[in-house]
Amino acid sequence: GTKEFKGDFNELFRKSIEMVLDVTIKTGTKVVLIPSLKDIYHLPIYPQPPYTDMSIKENVRGSNPPKLGTHSHLYPNPAQFDFNTIRFAVSTADIITHMAKREVAVEMKDRFSRILGHLFSQRRFYPLYPPSSDINLEITKSIHLAINQ
Questions:
Q1: Cβ(143)–Cβ(45) under 8 Å?
Q2: How far is residue 96's CA from residue 116's CA, in Å, rounded to a whole number?
Q3: Of 59, 82, 94, 106, which has fewest CB within 10 angstroms of its CB?
Q4: In sequence order, which ranges of the chain are alpha helices (DSSP H)?
Q5: Coil, helix or strand for 109?
Q6: CA atoms of 115 and 119, how far apart (whole Å)
Q7: The pTM is what?
Q8: Nearest to 91, CA basis, from 56, 67, 119
Protein backbone atom coordinates (compact mmCIF):
# COMPACT_ATOMS: atom_id res chain seq x y z
CA GLY A 1 0.00 0.00 0.00
CA THR A 2 0.92 3.64 0.00
CA LYS A 3 2.51 5.36 2.96
CA GLU A 4 1.59 8.86 4.01
CA PHE A 5 4.60 11.14 4.44
CA LYS A 6 4.56 13.21 7.60
CA GLY A 7 6.99 16.08 7.14
CA ASP A 8 7.58 19.24 5.14
CA PHE A 9 8.72 19.63 1.54
CA ASN A 10 12.35 20.15 2.60
CA GLU A 11 12.39 16.79 4.32
CA LEU A 12 10.58 15.06 1.44
CA PHE A 13 13.03 16.50 -1.09
CA ARG A 14 16.06 15.50 1.00
CA LYS A 15 14.76 11.97 1.63
CA SER A 16 13.90 11.45 -2.04
CA ILE A 17 17.34 12.55 -3.23
CA GLU A 18 19.08 10.50 -0.52
CA MET A 19 17.12 7.34 -1.39
CA VAL A 20 18.07 7.61 -5.05
CA LEU A 21 21.72 8.39 -4.26
CA ASP A 22 22.02 5.55 -1.72
CA VAL A 23 20.79 2.95 -4.19
CA THR A 24 22.78 4.27 -7.13
CA ILE A 25 26.05 4.52 -5.20
CA LYS A 26 25.72 0.86 -4.17
CA THR A 27 24.99 -0.29 -7.71
CA GLY A 28 27.48 1.99 -9.50
CA THR A 29 24.65 3.60 -11.47
CA LYS A 30 24.99 7.14 -12.79
CA VAL A 31 22.27 9.62 -11.81
CA VAL A 32 21.01 12.40 -14.06
CA LEU A 33 19.03 15.05 -12.18
CA ILE A 34 16.98 17.32 -14.44
CA PRO A 35 14.51 19.87 -13.05
CA SER A 36 10.85 19.59 -13.90
CA LEU A 37 8.37 22.36 -14.58
CA LYS A 38 6.35 20.86 -11.72
CA ASP A 39 9.19 20.92 -9.15
CA ILE A 40 8.33 22.83 -6.01
CA TYR A 41 11.97 23.91 -5.63
CA HIS A 42 12.72 25.15 -9.11
CA LEU A 43 11.64 28.01 -11.35
CA PRO A 44 8.61 26.91 -13.42
CA ILE A 45 10.02 28.66 -16.51
CA TYR A 46 11.16 26.78 -19.62
CA PRO A 47 14.04 26.35 -20.34
CA GLN A 48 15.23 25.78 -16.78
CA PRO A 49 18.74 26.07 -15.38
CA PRO A 50 20.16 22.94 -13.74
CA TYR A 51 20.01 22.24 -10.06
CA THR A 52 23.34 22.96 -8.42
CA ASP A 53 24.91 21.54 -5.30
CA MET A 54 24.18 24.91 -3.69
CA SER A 55 20.54 25.04 -4.81
CA ILE A 56 19.97 21.56 -3.42
CA LYS A 57 21.57 22.56 -0.11
CA GLU A 58 19.43 25.72 0.00
CA ASN A 59 16.28 23.67 -0.62
CA VAL A 60 16.86 21.44 2.37
CA ARG A 61 17.34 24.16 4.97
CA GLY A 62 17.42 22.94 8.52
CA SER A 63 18.46 19.39 7.67
CA ASN A 64 21.56 17.61 6.45
CA PRO A 65 21.77 18.15 2.68
CA PRO A 66 22.31 15.07 0.54
CA LYS A 67 25.86 14.64 -0.70
CA LEU A 68 26.03 14.42 -4.48
CA GLY A 69 28.81 12.13 -5.63
CA THR A 70 30.79 11.97 -8.84
CA HIS A 71 28.15 9.60 -10.20
CA SER A 72 25.57 12.43 -10.05
CA HIS A 73 25.12 14.74 -13.02
CA LEU A 74 23.05 17.94 -12.84
CA TYR A 75 21.66 19.15 -16.17
CA PRO A 76 19.25 21.89 -17.29
CA ASN A 77 15.80 21.26 -18.73
CA PRO A 78 16.03 20.56 -21.65
CA ALA A 79 19.43 18.86 -21.77
CA GLN A 80 21.71 17.00 -24.13
CA PHE A 81 24.50 14.77 -22.89
CA ASP A 82 26.61 11.76 -23.86
CA PHE A 83 27.11 8.54 -21.92
CA ASN A 84 29.30 5.81 -23.41
CA THR A 85 29.14 7.37 -26.91
CA ILE A 86 25.32 7.50 -26.86
CA ARG A 87 23.75 10.95 -27.22
CA PHE A 88 20.68 11.72 -25.09
CA ALA A 89 18.28 14.62 -25.55
CA VAL A 90 15.91 15.02 -22.59
CA SER A 91 13.09 17.41 -21.71
CA THR A 92 10.37 17.33 -19.07
CA ALA A 93 8.04 19.48 -21.18
CA ASP A 94 5.24 17.38 -22.68
CA ILE A 95 5.80 18.64 -26.22
CA ILE A 96 4.24 15.61 -27.92
CA THR A 97 0.92 16.15 -26.13
CA HIS A 98 1.08 19.90 -26.81
CA MET A 99 1.73 19.30 -30.52
CA ALA A 100 -1.02 16.67 -30.74
CA LYS A 101 -3.56 19.15 -29.37
CA ARG A 102 -2.65 21.67 -32.06
CA GLU A 103 -2.11 19.40 -35.02
CA VAL A 104 -4.46 19.83 -37.94
CA ALA A 105 -4.18 16.88 -40.30
CA VAL A 106 -6.55 15.28 -42.75
CA GLU A 107 -5.02 11.83 -42.41
CA MET A 108 -4.80 10.46 -38.87
CA LYS A 109 -2.71 7.43 -39.87
CA ASP A 110 0.51 7.09 -37.82
CA ARG A 111 -0.05 10.34 -35.95
CA PHE A 112 2.71 9.73 -33.39
CA SER A 113 5.37 9.27 -36.11
CA ARG A 114 4.19 12.41 -37.88
CA ILE A 115 4.45 14.48 -34.65
CA LEU A 116 7.91 13.08 -33.95
CA GLY A 117 8.87 13.91 -37.52
CA HIS A 118 7.93 17.57 -36.93
CA LEU A 119 9.94 17.61 -33.73
CA PHE A 120 13.06 16.12 -35.33
CA SER A 121 12.87 18.11 -38.56
CA GLN A 122 12.64 21.39 -36.66
CA ARG A 123 15.46 20.31 -34.28
CA ARG A 124 13.84 22.09 -31.33
CA PHE A 125 12.85 20.78 -27.91
CA TYR A 126 9.78 23.02 -28.03
CA PRO A 127 8.85 24.03 -31.60
CA LEU A 128 5.43 25.53 -30.74
CA TYR A 129 4.72 29.23 -30.64
CA PRO A 130 2.72 30.45 -28.93
CA PRO A 131 3.33 27.75 -26.32
CA SER A 132 0.67 25.69 -24.61
CA SER A 133 -0.93 27.32 -21.58
CA ASP A 134 0.70 24.49 -19.56
CA ILE A 135 4.18 25.96 -20.06
CA ASN A 136 5.84 29.27 -19.19
CA LEU A 137 8.19 29.69 -22.15
CA GLU A 138 11.00 32.21 -21.72
CA ILE A 139 11.33 33.23 -25.35
CA THR A 140 14.54 35.20 -24.74
CA LYS A 141 16.22 31.90 -23.77
CA SER A 142 14.95 29.99 -26.81
CA ILE A 143 18.52 29.40 -28.06
CA HIS A 144 18.69 26.72 -25.34
CA LEU A 145 15.85 24.83 -27.04
CA ALA A 146 17.87 23.85 -30.11
CA ILE A 147 18.67 20.16 -30.49
CA ASN A 148 22.33 19.87 -31.48
CA GLN A 149 23.81 17.02 -33.47
A1: no
A2: 7
A3: 106
A4: 9-27, 53-59, 95-102, 111-122
A5: coil
A6: 6
A7: 0.77
A8: 119
